Amino acid sequence: MQALIPAGPAVPAILPVVLVLVGIIAVLGVLLMFARQQALHEKHVALDLRVTRIESSVASISERFDGLDKTLGVICQDGKHNRELLHIIIRGHMEPDGK
């Protein structure tokens, strides 16, 4: 006849294996978190550099627009003077010579 083996002693024998597997999974999780943190830090530094470059280029573009605004103001004034001169010339030609 076969002897019956109680189920009780088999459970504690599996417990160390389960604990080791849980420990390995936990260590891998922590290592993954540290690797992800390092990658995020590198991306943050790269984005910070990019923002700095964009801010400096925005400042230079703003200065260029200020210069263009002044130039357009001068052109607008010149256009007004040209229009006035044209009106004077037209009035001079339209009026009779006696006036």
Description:
- The protein is an all-alpha fold.
- The protein has a domain of 60 residues.
- The chain is rod-shaped, with a radius of gyration of 42 Å.
- The model has no long low-confidence stretch (mean pLDDT 84).
Largest sheet: none
Indicate the overall shape: rod-shaped
Runs in which pLDDT lies below 50 for 5 or more consecutive residues are none
The count of helical stretches stands at 1
Mean pLDDT: 84
Order of helices and strands: H
Radius of gyration: 42 Å
Given the helix and strand composition, which structural class is it? mainly alpha
Query: N-to-C terminal Cα separation, in Å?
Result: 144 Å
Task: List the topology elements.
Blueprint: H1 10-94
Describe, in short, the structure shown.
This protein is mainly alpha-helical and 99 residues long. 86% of the residues lie in helices and 0% in strands.
Annotation keywords:
99 residues; 0% strand; mainly alpha
